[in-house]
From TrEMBL, chains A, B:
<protein>
    <submittedName>
        <fullName>CoA transferase</fullName>
    </submittedName>
</protein>
<keyword id="KW-0808">Transferase</keyword>
<dbReference type="InterPro" id="IPR003673">
    <property type="entry name" value="CoA-Trfase_fam_III"/>
</dbReference>
<dbReference type="InterPro" id="IPR044855">
    <property type="entry name" value="CoA-Trfase_III_dom3_sf"/>
</dbReference>
<dbReference type="Pfam" id="PF02515">
    <property type="entry name" value="CoA_transf_3"/>
</dbReference>
<dbReference type="InterPro" id="IPR050483">
    <property type="entry name" value="CoA-transferase_III_domain"/>
</dbReference>
<dbReference type="InterPro" id="IPR023606">
    <property type="entry name" value="CoA-Trfase_III_dom_1_sf"/>
</dbReference>
<dbReference type="GO" id="GO:0008410">
    <property type="term" value="F:CoA-transferase activity"/>
</dbReference>
Amino acid sequence: MSSAAPGRPGRALEGMVVLDLGQIYNGPYCTMLLRQLGAEVIKIEPGGGEPIRWRGDGTTVSQAFNLLNGGKQGLELNLKSAAGVELFLRLVAVADVVVENFAPGVMERLGLGYDRLEEANPRLVLASGKGFDSASRHKDLRAMDITVQAISGMMAATGFEGQPPVKSGGAVADFIAGTHLAAAILGALVQRERTGRGQRVEVNMYDAILPTLTSNIAGYLDSGGTAPERVGNRHGGLSVAPYNVYASADGWIAVLCMRDRHWQTLCRLVGREDLLADESLATPRGRVEAIGRVDEVVSAWIATLTTAGALKLLQEGDIPAAPVRRLREVIEDPDVRERGMLVEVDDHGRPGYAYGSPLRLGASAPVAPAQAPDIGEHNGAVLSRLLGLTEAEIEECRRRGAW
Amino acid sequence: MSSAAPGRPGRALEGMVVLDLGQIYNGPYCTMLLRQLGAEVIKIEPGGGEPIRWRGDGTTVSQAFNLLNGGKQGLELNLKSAAGVELFLRLVAVADVVVENFAPGVMERLGLGYDRLEEANPRLVLASGKGFDSASRHKDLRAMDITVQAISGMMAATGFEGQPPVKSGGAVADFIAGTHLAAAILGALVQRERTGRGQRVEVNMYDAILPTLTSNIAGYLDSGGTAPERVGNRHGGLSVAPYNVYASADGWIAVLCMRDRHWQTLCRLVGREDLLADESLATPRGRVEAIGRVDEVVSAWIATLTTAGALKLLQEGDIPAAPVRRLREVIEDPDVRERGMLVEVDDHGRPGYAYGSPLRLGASAPVAPAQAPDIGEHNGAVLSRLLGLTEAEIEECRRRGAW
C-alpha cells in the first residue's frame, strides 16, 4: 500500500489504510494520530454507532466524538453477520493496520482473532488496546479511564494528604494508552519494512499509566515505603522544594526550584536574604526536610501579589513558574487556535471542532482538520475505492446484512 | 544500520542507534521505549550528569533515574568543548536518532542545530521534546511537568469544585509528551524507509496534554461554556452518571454506569427498584441532571459494604467498578512484577529497579531489563565499537577535553 515514491517526502504513512474499530477515547485517539501522519482511517461502527455517540440524549453528538474522529471515513458494518465479517476480511486483505479496544475476547467471539486476520493478510498489524493482560489477575475488571486510574495508583497519588483520593482531571489512562498504542503500531510498521510481515501488538492501560507515577514510585522505593501516598501539589516523590502551587491575590501560580540557584534567587526576591545563610536549606534534601517552612516563605510572598505580578518577578529571576489557567483560557488561547491544536470545522452544517496533531514532523506534510463522519457515511465510497465493488455489489452486501 | 535479515523477526528497531541527550522524564522515557523496541540507546551526559542525578543529597541516585535509564550505554561528553562536539558529530554520522529535551535554543547554542546534524547524516531523525512551540506566546515559560499542568488546564480540571486546583499525581505532562515523541520518531522512521531521508520531529508538552482533557473540553463546548471547571471524581464532561468514587466501609471504590442497563442493574442491587419507574432517570442526560440524587443512592449503599464486598456484587452485575488501590498495593502487585513492568535489577552492587515496556509486540523479541549506566561508564566501549577508535585515540579525545 506504499505509494510514495522514494525521495518524495509526502507523509509518513501515506498510502496506508487503517481499519478503526476503536471506541470512546483509547482506540480513536490512536487512529487520530495515525490519520494525522497521513494514513487513511476507516472508522467502522455498528448500526447504533460506537458507545461515545450514546452520550447526551441520543439526538446530538458530543464534541468529544468530533474532536477525535475528524477526517476518518465512516463505514457501517454489522460484524455479527456473516456478510459483515466477510466484508471486513476483504478490507483486512488490503489494509495495513487494524485497531481495536473492545473488551477482552470480543474479536475472538466475532471470529476475528489474530490467526484469521493474519491469514487474510500476513502484512497486517493488529493493534489491541486493553485494560490488562489476558493473564492478569485484574483481567475481569472493566477497563475504563476511571477504573484504571483507581486500580493503578493514579488516584491514590492525586489529592491532598488526609483527604480523599482524586481522579486526574484528564482521561490520562485512556489517552496515554492510546498514544502508546500508536507507538507500538509504528514500531511494528518499521519492523515490517525489514521483515515483510505484520504482527499483533498490544498495550494495556494498566502498564501505560505506571511510569507516569515515577516520582511517587521512586519516593516509595527510596524511602523504604515511608513516603506519603499523596502530597497535593508538591513534588510526587518529595524530592524538590519549593515545588508547589501557591495562592496569589487573584489566583494560583505553580513555582519550583530545580536548582540551588533558583532557591538563592527566590530568597532575594522575597526579601529573605537571611535564609541564604541557613545551611540546612542549601541542598534539595535540606529544603525537602524543611518543606513546611520553605512553602510558608513562598506562600507569604505570593499572597501579596497578583498572579501576573508574581510571574513577572519569577521570570525575571529565571525561576520556573506558570499561572494555573482556567480551562476557558486554554480553550480560547489564541496559541491553541493558531497552532491548529483545536480548530472549528463544519460538522454536516453544525459547528464542530477537531484536534490538530501533537506530532510535528518536519518532512511529513500536515493533514487538514476535517469533520467526523456520520455512521456509514462513506460505505459506498470506501467499498468501491478499496475493494472495487460496483453499486450493485454494494447493494447486495447491504441486502445480505453486512450493515 | 539495519542488520536484521528479511523474514527474521528480531526486534523492531534492531541495529538502530539512538543518541540520548534526554533529561529528567520526557526525553529519557522516550528513549526507554526505543530501547525496549530493540534500539541501542547511548545516554550522553556532561561531567556532572543529567539534572535528575542531582536530586537527593548528591551522593545517592534516586530510583527515578534507574527506572528510566536501564540498559542504556553511558557516554560522558562535554558538548561545550570543540572536541566533544566533534565526537558527537562523528556519532551522529552513524546514528539513526538523536533525542533531546533541552530548553529552547540549547542545541543551536552548542552548534548542534538541525542543519548541522542533517549535514552529518541526512538519514538522521532529530527529535526535540519541548514545552511550547518556538513561536508560542508561552515560549519563555520554563516547561516542567508542574508548570505545564498549570498552564494547560490539567490542574484547573483536577480537584473538587470550590476547592483549590490539584496537580495530577502522575507526571502526566512529561510522560505523555515523551510517549508522543517516541511515536513521532517511529513515524519518521517509517517514512525514512520509503524516502531514504531523516527529518526533524518535535512534540510540545502543551500540545500533548490537551487531548487528555477531551471530556472537559467537550463539556465546555457542548454547554456553551457553562460546565463546571472541575468536578472531583465525577465524569470530566458531566456526561455520565453514576460515575464517581464512593467511600466504602474500609476504603474507596470507583463505579460507573456507561449504559442504561448498568443503571437498571444497580437500582436492583441497591434495593431501589422504585427508581426504575422514574423516567427522568432513564437516560444518561436525565441521570446527569439528577446527579446529586443519583450519587446519594450509590453512596448510601456502598457505605454499608467493604470495598471487596461492593466490588464482588458490582462485578456479578457486570457494572464497571474498581477499588482505589494504595500506591503500595500497586508497587507490590505480583501482576506488575510477573509481567516485568517493575523489576529489580542489580545496580552496580546496589539494589535497583527498572521498568518493562508497555509496548508489547508479538514478533519483536522482548529486551531484558538492566541497570542504568554510571556517567561515562561506556565511553571506551561505545567509541571503539561505533567509531572504531583505538585506546590511544580515545585517550587523545579525553586529553582534548571531549569529556
